[in-house]
Design goal:
- It is built from eleven helices and ten strands.
- The chain is of the alpha/beta class.
- The chain folds into two domains: 254 residues, P-loop containing nucleotide triphosphate hydrolases (Rossmann fold), CATH 3.40.50.300; 35 residues, no CATH class.
Length: 316
């Protein structure tokens, strides 16, 4: 690639690179406006027979209303087949609504003339990193997106360095992605999206292939992007502990949004979540079981620290 050069060591090597806090420009900057607006959004998958004729239709997303403000951290939960990944693929126009509308940063996803701008605004991280890693060397892969956006060479390398350090993959910058573990590949995929500086990042179960430490590191990175750079985050996950600090949680079942609210509000309804075949954070479950035994704990306890504090209050 034409932008290849020697990298400097002038950036913070721990946690989120400092430059991401002050130098995030995205595709138009941060503003206090709604970035994702969906109304009666529905999507049908069609099944075809051997001759290519439509055989049946399955509604994967069913009349969903979606309101996400710029800078929000929104988590989407749901059992396999609930429609959450299908919904996520609408946000950068991989899929288009069968019915209803979806606007991303004020642009209709069904307007083909706005497709490029929509995909610059909303970056996507897939569950399987092999679906989006194309470079033969890690740093070249991370720089591929900015290069295609026309970013100047010096700025490309600044972004590559910051993004790889942000996900803990800086020391692997000269490695081949094919030599990395699944979890390491996922971090590279996330870095590739971060380097393009989108206003919104959609993560479709990004930690599914990571060990507990890797999951924690990636989620911390995503949270820092959200807090420091005001990047809007939509996180799809099966790990309940990952959504505790989200601004809002949506629960999907059979294509519909069946619950929504803050994490504390959602996890206060343990039995309802179980009816949708979902778990709750370990601290929430322990508190719930203690409540059933007559212990006077409040609803919606989310962490072991919070549980310990509430138990200490009962002792005093």
């Amino acid at each position: 690639m034409g932008w290849k050069r020697k990298l400097s060591d002038g950036y913070d090597k721990v946690g989120l690179a400092a430059g991401l806090q002050d130098d995030w420009t995205g595709t138009g900057g941060y503003a206090e406006v709604g970035i994702i607006k969906g109304r009666k959004l529905s999507y049908d998958y069609q099944k075809f027979d051997e001759e290519g004729n439509p055989e049946s239709t399955v509604r994967a997303v069913d009349a969903v209303d979606l309101d996400v403000e710029t800078g929000d951290f929104v988590a989407i939960l749901g059992h396999n087949g609930s429609g959450k990944s299908t919904l996520a693929k609408h946000i950068n126009a991989i899929l288009l609504p069968t019915e209803g509308t979806l606007y991303v940063d004020g642009k209709d996803t069904q307007d083909e003339s706005k497709l490029w701008e929509i995909r610059q605004t909303a970056g996507m991280v897939f569950q399987n990193p092999d679906n989006q890693i194309i470079g033969t060397i890690v740093d070249e892969d991370v720089g591929f997106g900015p290069e295609n956006l026309g970013v100047p060479c010096d700025e490309i390398w600044k972004r590559v360095e910051e993004s790889l350090k942000a996900v803990g993959m800086w020391e692997y910058r000269a490695h081949s992605p094919n030599k990395l573990s699944g979890g390491q590949k996922q971090r590279v995929a996330i870095a590739g999206v971060v380097a393009m500086r989108p206003k919104c990042i959609v993560l479709d179960e990004p930690t599914a292939m990571l060990d507990p430490n890797g999951r924690k590191e990636v989620i911390c990175t995503v949270r820092e992007l959200n807090r420091r750079a005001h990047v809007t985050v939509l996180l799809i996950t099966h790990y309940m502990e990952e959504v505790i600090e989200a601004d809002k949680v949506l629960v999907m079942d059979q294509g519909k949004v069946v619950m929504q609210g803050t994490p504390k509000e959602i996890f206060s309804h343990v039995e309802e979540l179980k009816s949708y075949r979902l778990d709750v954070p370990q601290a929430t479950l322990v508190a719930y079981e203690l409540q059933k035994k007559g212990v006077g704990l409040p609803d919606g306890i989310l962490s072991m620290k919070e549980l310990a504090e509430e138990l200490e209050k009962l002792r005093s």
